[in-house]
């Protein structure tokens, strides 16, 4: 969409000033209004339709990868969250932080290993993960959203028993230590914050249940985001990744897929390796009641804003990148 970036810029300006007029009212071209192209008008109408269809509804975003490590992409993501909030959309952010955890583990001399593609979480590893995720990473995200004109509050999955977990049993027989499987999500807490116009920013460290209530569990951020989206019956769930989306065997983007399509692509080994769990979390969220899920390239500036607003009332994305998953 040729002029989507220009209108997105106007939304970001409105967000930073606390004023959210219609997109066209923030644009002041030097040329005559008669010179504005039909493409521009079409883009503005598309965005207006998308914003109207999502106003008052909930979007859950899993934030991670290069979008978290690049200062420019990080700032753009937080601006996107603030802009969508100021359009009346209820936002929830669930973040990862693998590179930051790895860096801190190295600094403090704690060894870490992976089994079956997942980090084995010893008590020492969980301590470091909790320190990093619930401390510096979580608070930086929530603070930057606020600086961009939004409202956000950083939370751990242990706060008010937000993410209640049991020990994950790996299907391949690996003992992953204190890796948690989310059993219960405290949606009451999330909805209370959303009702106040606050974006919960959730770090994926969960708490045990029953006699294990004081145990901290490391939770995969994609899993946590998908489960939260499903329990909230969110309108959309977005998983920001470091690839363009789901690709076919010729490495071409598949822009729209059903859950059945996903199962078939896994079966014929079109989808392999690390993409299998990511698409599985997206399809699980849709099956739990989410209106649709995006697997989106977080390396694209303002990917969140473009995908949420670029599809108009249909809400299936801009068409410029990412894969939209539906029933």
Automatic annotation (TrEMBL):
Q: In which pathway does it act?
A: Amino-acid biosynthesis; L-arginine biosynthesis; N(2)-acetyl-L-ornithine from L-glutamate: step 2/4
- List the GO biological process terms: L-arginine biosynthetic process
Keywords linked to the UniProt accession? Amino-acid biosynthesis, Arginine biosynthesis, ATP-binding, Kinase, Nucleotide-binding, Signal, Transferase
* Molecular-function GO terms, alphabetical: acetylglutamate kinase activity; ATP binding
Q: EC number(s) on record? A: 2.7.2.8
Residues annotated as coiled-coil are none
Q: Which InterPro entries match?
A: AceGlu_kinase-like_sf, AcgluKinase_fam, ArgB, Asp/Glu/Uridylate_kinase, Glu/AcGlu_kinase
Q: Name one GO cellular component term.
A: cytoplasm
What span is annotated as the signal peptide, if there is one?
A: 1-18
Q: Its domain of life? A: Eukaryota
Ranges where the Aspartate/glutamate/uridylate kinase domain occurs: 57-296
Q: Which PANTHER family match?
A: N-ACETYLGLUTAMATE SYNTHASE, N-ACETYLGLUTAMATE SYNTHASE, MITOCHONDRIAL
Protein name (Swiss-Prot/TrEMBL): acetylglutamate kinase
Question: What organism does the UniProt record list as the source?
Answer: Cylindrotheca closterium
Phylogenetic lineage: Eukaryota, Sar, Stramenopiles, Ochrophyta, Bacillariophyta
